[in-house]
């Protein structure tokens, strides 16, 4: 009886050991259990930086509003940021980007660039630069930032980890919007005082090509993943123009049909904001006067207008989720790309509307960023389609 009792307790202890350790080896039986801890679930969040519509605090206050993409874009948390002007008031946010290499979020304001650790959510550094800072872009390897001055003569190239200046690139074009090419070889520099798009070599940090001229000074723009085509907004046009990044030539002018150019509240041009779905099949265009997004078929050239979507306020920017399921105009509307329906509206913890022209998608595994989208609505097809 005592032997049976000891055997029972030995078996019970073994079961408890298996429960505690998960996977354990039993050589005599030829069986093994894996002791590896399962990988953490990837969480997908939308980071919306405010004030991202001029300095208007009524569109989300001052800081970062974080939303859960997989939970109907519900509010998750609010992160405090820097970015104050000399009078102590929150400054206009001009751009946002992410470096997976440094695990940091970067926010440009009128005066400065701030670096925020994505794990601790603490500001690591905030530096002011000559000429101010406009919409930044970070290299694919996360090491280098191209930083336009505030509509002045030059771009400043800085080290993403330290903020140290590497070089200044003078274009005399009214530095404004910047896109680092997805292959890391070229950076596209659009000034709002020039009809030409400057292309910089990312190794030498010198301008090696110009694209255009376009019909008027360049405003927001986007490129395809193969870096062969650029789609630009220009002053005075309800629509967009297309250029060839390889030859440097102007290709097409596309005008929105069925809508009139009207007065806009901001930016001074009819279309301020253009993005491409990640599969590059569609171009989505902002219409500031008519509070609409116009959708174009991009499988043909020039692209052909398909439909229009009414949004709740003036759209001044647009980007897309990494999987291409959602469109994110600056109005805070969340649009299902396939159905064209508004499926959610970004709201803070007090259920106030959140709007911003500066937002980016970030994926986390545990407490570290493992993937990030972009603020520009760039194409993600890395090879050119064969004719």
Automatic annotation (TrEMBL):
Residues in the signal sequence: none
InterPro entries on file: Host-pathogen_enzymatic-act (IPR051200), Quino_amine_DH_bsu (IPR011044), WD40/YVTN_repeat-like_dom_sf (IPR015943)
Entry protein name: 40-residue YVTN family beta-propeller repeat protein
Domain of life from the UniProt record: Bacteria
């Amino acid at each position: 009886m005592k032997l049976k009792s000891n055997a029972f307790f030995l078996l019970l202890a073994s079961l408890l050991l298996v429960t505690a350790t998960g996977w354990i080896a039993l050589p005599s039986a030829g069986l093994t259990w894996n002791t590896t801890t399962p990988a953490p679930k990837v969480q997908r969040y939308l980071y919306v930086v405010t004030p991202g519509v001029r300095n208007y605090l009524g569109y989300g206050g001052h800081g970062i509003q974080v939303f859960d993409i997989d939970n109907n874009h519900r509010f998750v948390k609010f992160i405090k940021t820097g970015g104050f002007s000399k009078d102590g008031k929150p400054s206009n946010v001009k751009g946002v980007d992410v470096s997976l290499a440094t695990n940091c979020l970067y926010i440009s304001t009128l005066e400065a660039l701030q670096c925020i650790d994505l794990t601790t959510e603490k500001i690591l550094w905030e530096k002011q630069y000559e000429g101010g800072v406009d919409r930044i872009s970070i290299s694919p390897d996360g090491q280098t930032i191209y930083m336009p001055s505030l509509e002045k003569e030059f771009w400043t190239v800085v080290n993403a980890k330290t903020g140290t200046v590497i070089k200044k690139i003078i274009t005399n074009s009214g530095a404004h919007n910047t896109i680092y090419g997805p292959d890391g070889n070229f950076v596209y520099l659009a000034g709002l005082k020039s009809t030409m798009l400057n292309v910089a070599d990312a190794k030498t940090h010198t301008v090696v090509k110009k694209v255009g001229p376009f019909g008027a000074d360049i405003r927001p723009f986007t490129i395809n993943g193969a870096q062969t085509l650029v789609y630009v907004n220009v002053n005075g046009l309800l629509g967009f123009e297309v250029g060839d990044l390889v030859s440097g030539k102007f290709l097409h002018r596309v005008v929105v049909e069925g809508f009139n150019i009207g007065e806009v509240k901001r930016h001074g041009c009819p279309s301020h904001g253009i993005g491409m779905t990640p599969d590059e099949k569609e171009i989505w265009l902002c219409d500031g006067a008519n509070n609409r997004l116009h959708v174009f078929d991009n499988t043909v050239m020039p692209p052909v207008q398909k439909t229009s979507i009414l949004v709740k306020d003036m759209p001044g920017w647009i980007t897309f989720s990494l999987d291409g399921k959602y469109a994110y105009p600056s109005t805070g509307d969340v649009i299902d790309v396939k159905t064209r329906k508004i499926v959610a509206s970004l709201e803070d913890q007090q259920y106030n509307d959140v709007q911003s022209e500066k937002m980016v998608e970030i994926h986390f595994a545990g407490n570290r960023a493992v993937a990030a989208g972009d603020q520009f609505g760039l194409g993600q097809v890395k090879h050119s389609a064969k004719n």
